[in-house]
Structure formats: C-alpha cells, structure tokens
Amino acid sequence: MALSQAGGPSQEQAAAVIHAALDAGITFFDTADVYCTSDEDIGHNERLLRRAFDSYGGDTSGVVVATKGIMSRPGGDWVAGSDPDALFAACDRSLEALGVDCLDLYYLHTPSGFDGDDFKFAKACANLRNLQQEGKIRHVGLSNVSYEQLVSSQAAIEVAACQNRCNLFDPSAFHDGVVGHCKQTGVAFVPYSPMGGPRGPGSHIDSTARDGLGLQPLCQKLGCSAHELMLSWLLQIDDCIIPIAGATRMESVTSIARAAKDKFPLADEDIAQFLR
Length: 276
Prior knowledge:
Layout: H1 11-23, E1 28-30, H2 44-55, E2 64-69, E3 71-72, E4 79-80, H3 86-98, E5 103-108, H4 118-133, E6 137-143, H5 147-153, E7 159-163, H6 178-185, E8 188-189, H7 215-222, H8 226-237, H9 250-262, H10 268-273
Parallel strand pairs: 1-2, 2-5, 5-6, 6-7, 7-8
Antiparallel strand pairs: 3-4
Helix pairs in contact: 1-2, 1-9, 8-9
C-alpha cells in the first residue's frame, strides 16, 4: 500500500522493491483498488504490481495476488462502500488493472459501510459468490469482519481468507474468536499491520529501542530485529496465520523474507505471553 501513497518511492523504486520481493522468494502479494492517493487514481497499486510483474525477468507463474473492493478515496479519505452491488464494477476494474481474467483472491474490503445492515452484508456475500461462479474470482475473502460476520458469511460462501488487523499491540483477533474460527474451519487468517502499521506503536521499535513489550532480550537472544520478531511470533502461533507486511525499501523486503524463512524460534511461553 505504501508504494502508492503520497510521499512514497518513485515508480522505478517501487518496481525495484517488488522485484526484490520476487527475488527473495515472496509469492503472495496483497493490494486493493483504494491503495492510491484519491478517487482519481483508483487502482494505482494494482497497476503498479502488474507493471512490475511484466518487467520482471524471472518466473511469476506461481505468484498469488489478493485485492479488495469496495471502498473509495474521496479527497484522500477512506470511505467504506454502502452498496453491495458495487462489487461487480469494482471487481471488473481490478481485473483490468491487474491484467488478468480471474482474481486469485478477492476480499470484501470492509462491511462497515453497511451500518450493521445484515441484509446488505448477506447480499455482498451473495454477490461474491456470483462473481466466483462467473469465473472472475478464484477464492473469496473477507476483511475487517467480526466473528459473527465471519460465521454468518459461511452459510453463503466458502471463505478462503479473513484479513483483519492483528499484531503484538493489538491481539484482539485472538480473543474475539476470529482466529480460532479460522483455524477450525480451514480459513487462512491474514493479519494486516503485523508490526503495528506505518504510524502505529511499532513503527519506531528496533532491537535497541525501549519498547515496553520486553522484546529486547528476545531480539538479542535470537539475533533478530524487533520487526522480525513480531512477524515470527505470528508465524509460529498457527499454520493458518499468514501475515502481510508492507515494504518501501529493499532492506525491509530482505528482513521480511528472513523472518518468513527463519521463523526465529520462540519458546511456548514467549509466544503465550503476548497473547494475554
């Protein structure tokens, strides 16, 4: 997302970061039509990924791309969509932006625009099912949903992935039933902002910082950064958890790939202490 935000890297630098991720063996990329600066540039990040893949010299046949609808960016704000039928046009725009005939994984970005209207949420789920039956979506996902919404959705669709915010500073998904239900029903749980987000409490933590979570001794013991430790923590809780971390620098890509590969081994008590 940050590659398409104001103040982000140039298009050439952004492509280099994506190429570095591919070189590091990363094959799962997460985007959304609203990863852009405003409504005038909807689909920016999707188009950026497409251009980067097209210009990559290696094999991208095994790459999986997840994208989302239906939000908007009027004046740069983030506004949840209120019309579940808008999914049809949003899906078509994403297909065009990514240059594909079928989206690997397509999420309802957030149901918050439905204002608790269960009928609208049910209709959005039905629309996702219809798009899947039309061959435009391979797998269906839900983002920013409650436990109750996740459970109710499964009466209409086979949910492949649930993407909610989750990290050491906000482990609520482990307590509200979402992660447990994902594990029980074979749904991938995809935590976003796994290190707290670009402006969150983890944005300035490193292995030498005073972090308030007691990460320093573990980082020193394992020989990793605090950000690598945060990713390792999520990866070791359960196999259904697939965290997505953003990067705007090649150094960050290297660090993310290192955490995914090495999964700096944490003792059970170290994992458990951050779940309390």
